[in-house]
Amino acid sequence: MIVAFSVTPLGVGEEVGEYVADAVRVVRESGLPHRTDAMFTSVEGEWEECMDVVRRAVAAVEARAPRVSLVLKADIRPGVTDGLTAKVASVERHLS
C-alpha cells in the first residue's frame, strides 16, 4: 500500500518547516520506501507499518504544537510492491 499524508502544525505561526521536518524524520528513520514533496510525504509498506509511521509522525509534531492537522490518502493494493516508482514510471512512459 502507499499512504500519502500531510501533517500540519496549527497555532505555531506561518513558518512550519521545522515542525514538518520532525514528521519527515520519523518517515526517513522508518526504513520504508518514501518520497517527500512540497505538499505530501508518501510511504510504502504494509497497512500496520504505514499507519504506525503516520501515527508516530503526527506524535512528533503534536509534541511541539498545540494542534495538528492530518490529511491522508491511501492506495490499498495487496501484492503490489514498488508502487512509488512504478506509478511514476508508467506516467513517464506515456509522456515520451
UniProtKB/TrEMBL annotation:
Q: Which InterPro entries match?
A: MTH1187/YkoF-like (IPR029756), Thiamine_BP (IPR002767), UPF0045_domain (IPR051614)
Checking SUPFAM superfamilies in the record gives: MTH1187/YkoF-like (SSF89957)
* One GO CC term, this protein: cytosol
Top-level taxon in the UniProt lineage: Bacteria
Q: Where is the Thiamine-binding protein domain?
A: 3-92
In terms of PANTHER family, this protein maps to:
UPF0045 PROTEIN ECM15 (PTHR33777:SF1)
The record's similarity note reads: Belongs to the UPF0045 family.
Q: What name does the UniProt record give this protein?
A: Thiamine-binding protein domain-containing protein
Organism source for this protein? Streptomyces carminius
The upper taxonomy is: Bacteria, Bacillati, Actinomycetota, Actinomycetes, Kitasatosporales
